[in-house]
Amino acid sequence: MGFAYTAFLIGTFCGLIQVFMRNEMIQLPAWLDYYQVLTVHGVTLALVYTTFFIYAFLITGMSKALGSFGPKVARWSWIGFFVAAAGTVWATIEILSGRASVLYTFYAPLKASGWFYVSLALLIIGTWIISFALIAHYVKWRKANPGVMSPLFAFMTISTLAMWIIACLGVVAAVVFMFIPWAFGWVDTINVELSRTLFWFFGHPLVYFWLLPAYMAWYLVVPKLLGTKVFSDSLARLSFLLFILFSIPVGLHHQLTEPGVADFWKFLQVTLTFMVVIPTLMTAFSLFATFEISGRQKGAKGWFGWVGKLPWNDIRFTSLFIAMVFFIPGGAGGIINTSFQLNELVHNTLWVVGHFHITVGTPVAMTFMGISFWLIPYLTGRTLTKTTKKLAFIQIISWSIGMLLMSTAQHVLGLLGAPRRTQHSNYSDHPTVLGWFDGFFSNTATLAIGGIILFFSAMLLIVIVFRLWLIEPRSEEGDLYAEFPIAESDASATPRWLENWWIWLGIAVALILLAYTFPISHMIQDAPPGSKGFINW
Ligand code: HAS
């Protein structure tokens, strides 16, 4: 958790520099360039903050759901942590020393130092070690409890880890067999298209690797805070299984403008992407049902009377609720992105940057913030005092306002044509470009105000984390803010085949083979000329 929030501190500071640069309010010193800052921003927030936070949450939850770890699981979890941490520190050094300004997607033919790719590999290996330790803990529990459905938290953890391990195969193949030999000069060229395809094999499930732990909190923590049970155990399990199936064979929707992939394969993967709508809407349905049931139990009347019965003054709930609301436009934007023709309009524009700030940057990040408000006290044995609770409300509200301003500006600017992945430019004051910034939202000032509010909110969060970790008073017996809230989930009617991993992993592998075998074999057999590396910073 400490590692995650250190990355958050560095990453959000780089975010502030980004908006100032887009606004032409600052000029960087000669030793620091825009792409370096953007790479640190993307890597620390999208990869490091999320990954370390997620493992902190999963590790704690698994020991709560299945019982304390044995010495082997504990030891391997620590080893995994140190390997991942070493990889992260090393990658950060490579980026800060100017040898890896390749952004978090590290697209070839941009070429970083070979050690950058090695350090990324260490980060992935570290996460695998922790994942296998957690899977071992689960297997042991199942052996000790034959024929019993595992607790929902454990089931969701294993689904998330299964998806993560399969997804990483793509990026591991790209890094080990393509980037490392190329970056160290053992081969002269790289097959750019294949490297990107392997990256997106990993890159899209990566976004669900961020999202699913947030879903775990929505499914399990929210009903507990509302004083009710999980709406449907089978629905929750099925929705996680559908994510394993439909999050991987869909990476080509990030490459719809990529030449050299036959339309049919893009069409197939876009169709599979749309299938993700099903578990998403199942989740929304289940949550609304939970809200309504708990409201009615508390005496709510009429269609929307339950809204007033929700525990709005409980920051653990309100933060998660706002996060969910942000996911409505965030997810809808995803549907636009993946619509073949509409993608032509938004691809590589600031729209996509707006999209990921209201998916990973708010629904996911804000859920993680909401979890921190009780998970840190749970781990440190401290409590969330009234003062810190007030600060937490200010933090969540300011994050929402800042994100609303910044991401709306990014969406609008993107629709008008402002590009992403490039340093800000007025293109010699071309009238079209100047026109982008005329609107209320499409205005660099709006972007900057949004960014500044976000930075203020991020610093407030650091203060809260610090207080919860070291300053707040010790919690007392029965303190609600220092417990790990997991709702009861009735698995008595849940079909046993939902926990037969061979079925689900088998279908997942079949779908992956269907979606990827032909495009990848074409990219290898009819490989375009490889590219040498470019270091243009
Ligand atoms: Fe995305 C680009 C498509 C969801 C993150 N996405 C990105 C990038 C990131 C990202 C980081 O098809 C940039 C990558 C880069 O650097 O190039 N995205 C989708 C689709 C979904 C989606 C179809 N994205 C996410 C999530 C992310 C995330 C979640 C992070 C956590 N995305 C794309 C595409 C691109 C893309 C293209 C490439 C664009 C390009 O050209 O470069 C789906 O998962 C969306 C499902 C959503 C819905 C819609 C409605 C949602 C409803 C609300 C559900 C509410 C719930 C909560 C569950 C079906 C109705 C309850 C709510 C209450 C209020 C109680």
Automatic annotation (TrEMBL):
Residues 1-537 form the Cytochrome oxidase subunit I profile domain. It comes from Bhargavaea beijingensis. It comes from the Bacteria. Its main location: membrane. This is B(O/a)3-type cytochrome-c oxidase subunit 1. PANTHER family: CYTOCHROME C OXIDASE SUBUNIT 1, CYTOCHROME C OXIDASE SUBUNIT I. It is a multi-pass membrane protein. Gene3D superfamilies: Cytochrome c oxidase-like, subunit I domain. The chain crosses the membrane at residues 38-58, 78-96, 116-139, 151-180, 200-222, 234-252, 272-294, 315-336, 356-379, 391-413, 447-470, 501-524. It is found in: Membrane. Keywords: Electron transport, Heme, Iron, Membrane, Metal-binding, Respiratory chain, Transmembrane, Transmembrane helix, Transport. Belongs to the heme-copper respiratory oxidase family.
